[in-house]
Specification:
single chain; about 260 residues; 2 domains; 6-stranded mixed β-sheet; 5-stranded mixed β-sheet; 17 strands; binds 2-acetamido-2-deoxy-beta-D-glucopyranose; CTDL_fold; hydrolase; hyaluronic acid binding; cell adhesion; Sperma_CUB_dom_sf
Length: about 260
């Protein structure tokens, strides 16, 4: 009882960080990695994966399709995604924590679509990988270097990395790029690094970077920041290396202040 009270308090707090993106209600990156279970959609977008493709995607990242029980455990600690995905054995379902009319029909728990007869149906995927992913993670150190996978060697194809920097309340984050070399294309559609001045990759978009020009320094408005790196399956490059450092604000920060650099490259 007491434990569930704590969990509710945490969830209540987390609700502020949830948002709708491409028709999917996501919660924080941190919760998305709950219990080693995480949600993946095709790079082509929502509901584009057959069972076979979903398996390949999870295996590629060093894990496998999540079992129903694993998704259930993740749901119990707050994993919530409003998008149905393949599970091991050809089941389809999704985890709902926060009841809503548009998602899960007001129910909570794992919404179960059962074993699908047609394995060519198109859904997302739920992968299970209890070991740290190859790239990304939750970073709480006051200062750290972040490198693209394999750096200084070339990064691999089809990488998806999230770094979530989470410092103490009232601290801010100063990002400085040390080296930058990511496959160049005019709108950075192939490979890119995105920076978000927020807890997730929906709010506070700062910029999308590719090419080999060093992006300017970025300073967060709050104590959290999210970096997302994606590479496609063609050209790769050396990658990037950046340093973040805590900035300690002596007085309360002005909430209306804007980030210094909002340029896209
Ligand atoms: C199986 O699902 C796919 C994708 O939705 C569809 O194109 C195909 O016609 C379905 N096959 C059968 C036998 O219903």
């Amino acid at each position: 009882m007491f434990l569930s009270f704590i969990l509710l308090a945490v969830l209540w707090h987390e609700t502020e960080t949830w948002g709708l993106k491409n028709g999917i209600l996501h919660n924080s990156i941190w919760l998305e990695q709950a219990a080693g279970v995480y949600h993946r959609e095709s790079r082509k977008g929502k509901y584009q994966l057959t069972l076979k493709e979903a398996k390949v995607l999870c295996d590629y990242e060093g894990g496998h399709l999540a079992k129903y029980k694993q998704l259930e455990s993740a749901q119990r600690i707050g994993f919530h995604v409003c998008a149905a995905g393949w599970l091991a054995g050809g089941k389809v379902g999704y985890p709902i924590v926060k009841p809503g009319a548009n998602c899960g029909h007001g129910k909570t728990g794992v919404i179960d679509y059962g074993y699908r007869v047609n394995k060519s149906e198109l859904w997302d995927a739920y992968c299970y990988n209890p070991h740290a992913k190859q790239c990304g993670g939750v970073l709480t150190d006051p200062e750290r270097i972040i490198k693209s996978p394999n750096y200084p060697d070339e990064y691999e194809h089809q990488q998806i990395c999230y770094w979530h920097i989470r410092l103490k309340y009232k601290q801010r984050i100063h990002l400085r790029f040390l080296e930058f070399d990511v496959e160049d294309d005019p709108s950075c559609l192939s490979d890119y690094l995105e920076v978000y001045d927020s807890y997730d990759d929906m709010l506070g978009f700062v910029g999308r970077f590719c090419g080999n020009k060093l992006p300017s320094d970025i300073i967060s408005t709050g104590n959290v920041m999210t970096l997302k790196f994606l590479s496609d399956s063609s050209v790769t490059a050396k990658g990037f290396q950046l340093l973040y450092k805590v900035i300690i604000i002596p007085s309360a920060p002005d909430s209306t202040e804007k980030i210094e650099d909002t340029t896209h490259q």
